[in-house]
Specification:
The chain has seven helices and 27 strands. With 414 residues, it is of the alpha/beta class. The protein binds adenosine monophosphate and magnesium ion (MG). The site of adenosine monophosphate has 18 residues, from helix 3.
């Protein structure tokens, strides 16, 4: 049985994250069309099937010729053919000859230079025309050799890479239509509380609109997971277990909000204990978000976030995001930058603090961060307009405006 009310030590954030991640791994990899790969993680390396370009091609419009024939301004060549994109010229170019060529067209055999079209005087735009050189070309210039960009057989994408629009373009160019991907994890999102009404309903006295599930569903989707709505569990024993067990889809992770504290109306911990599985009930050494539950229901890992909207959102950034990344076959580590404080901060206590803040960058690239005046964890209005969190270590001494602090940028989508 967890020590619900007792004097448990506060667990450092990094340790909590480690423990949460230790139990998570992705599902079964499968072969998917590149069109469905956006944001998903590659399960295997991808080797180029094609070189890019496959054959040497021209980078400019002009004339393909032999550099040895073009040593002096005024040299005249004879146009013997045309090579356009998709319509290569198939002969072999000989001494004194030029082939009209366009961007992306294959360089004719025998040619080793491109004379730009603005550097010649051509008697006509047809074969047999004489082409007089006004600028001496250099061998190889404006020619993209075969394999310039990618060589067939090279690993172009490593397992573990998150697919993006530009990586999809690369894999497509290199001859792929499908790649092996880890599946998107299904993340059940459950709210708890007698005071909650579903979005769209007008709250009565003592009621509030449940916003955490809306936030977390959007969050899960933005992180590459599939949110599964588990509804609202009312504040009575067993309600949360019933909701989870009637999930419409198999789940890889359950996220709950609220009911995580030690009050008589908080049932998440007792429900987990009664489900007969391992439970870690932690008070995390962080603010916002001290009550955080880690456990399992029927073998499915569960993350119990605090109920206050800002606490659950900040905890989602710190714990849920790396959890989804791990379940998706990838990884996520929040990136910290250093910025100058815009105003003074008092000494910090034993909890790592995540202060809602505004980060600005001046024309010289200097970062300044201004903490919001109010840091109440119920204030979604302030969180919604913040773009960063100042991360203050436990027992950080007082700080003055101009001092350096660590800052975590908030993802604009989260
Ligand atoms: P709890 O941890 O259940 O005591 O909740 C802490 C605070 O968060 C209370 O003020 C709740 O009303 C609020 N809260 C809990 N769940 C939600 C939710 N789904 N949406 C918005 N606020 C919530
Ligand atoms: Mg509650």
């Amino acid at each position: 049985m967890p020590n619900k009310g007792g004097s448990q030590e506060l667990l450092p954030v990094a340790k909590a994250r480690e423990r949460i991640l230790a139990g998570l791994s992705p599902g079964q990899a499968d072969i998917c069309h590149l069109a469905d790969s956006m944001g998903r993680v590659l399960a295997s390396d991808v080797a180029a099937r094609l070189s890019l370009p496959v054959e040497p091609v021209s980078a400019m419009d002009g004339y393909a010729a032999r550099a040895a024939d073009c040593g002096a301004v005024g040299t005249t060549l004879t146009r013997i053919g045309e090579s356009a994109a998709g319509r290569p010229w198939t002969g072999t170019l000989g001494a004194g000859q030029a082939v009209r060529i366009f961007t992306g067209a294959v360089i004719p055999d025998g040619a080793d230079c491109i004379i730009l079209q603005e550097d010649v005087d051509a008697s006509a735009e047809e074969d047999g025309a004489s082409v007089s050189i006004r600028e001496v070309p250099r061998a190889g210039r404006f020619i993209r050799p075969a394999g310039l960009d990618v060589t067939a057989g090279d690993i172009i994408l490593a397992a573990g890479t998150v697919m993006s629009a530009r990586l999809i373009a690369l894999a497509t160019s290199a001859g792929h239509t499908h790649v092996s991907l880890w599946p998107r994890p299904h993340v059940g999102v459950l709210s708890t509380g007698d005071e909650l009404v579903t979005p769209g309903e007008t709250p009565g006295r003592g009621q509030i609109v449940s916003s955490n599930a809306t936030y977390l569903s959007a969050f899960v989707r933005a992180c590459g997971g599939v949110p599964v709505d588990l509804g609202i569990a009312r504040d009575r024993p067993g309600a949360m277990l019933e909701q989870v067990r009637s999930a419409p889809l198999p789940l890889d992770l359950i996220v709950t909000t609220g009911g995580a504290s030690v009050g008589v109306h908080d049932h998440v911990v007792d429900d987990l204990s009664s489900s007969g599985t391992e439970l870690g009930f932690w008070k995390i050494a962080m603010r916002p978000g001290k009550p955080l539950i880690h456990g399992q229901i029927d073998g499915i890992p569960l993350l119990g976030l605090p109920g206050n909207p800002v606490s659950s959102a900040v905890c989602a950034n710190i714990f849920l995001r790396p959890a989804i990344a791990r379940l998706s076959g990838g990884s996520y580590e929040p990136e910290l930058v250093t910025a100058r404080l815009g105003s003074d901060l008092p000494e910090n206590d034993q909890r790592q603090d995540y202060l809602r803040s505004t980060l600005t960058v001046d024309i010289e690239g200097n970062l300044t961060v201004e903490p919001a005046r109010k840091q109440d964890s119920s204030m979604i209005g302030i969180y919604a307009h913040a773009n960063a969190l100042i991360v203050r270590p436990a027992f950080d001494p007082p700080k003055s405006a101009g001092d350096a602090v660590m800052v975590m940028r908030l993802d604009p989508l989260l």
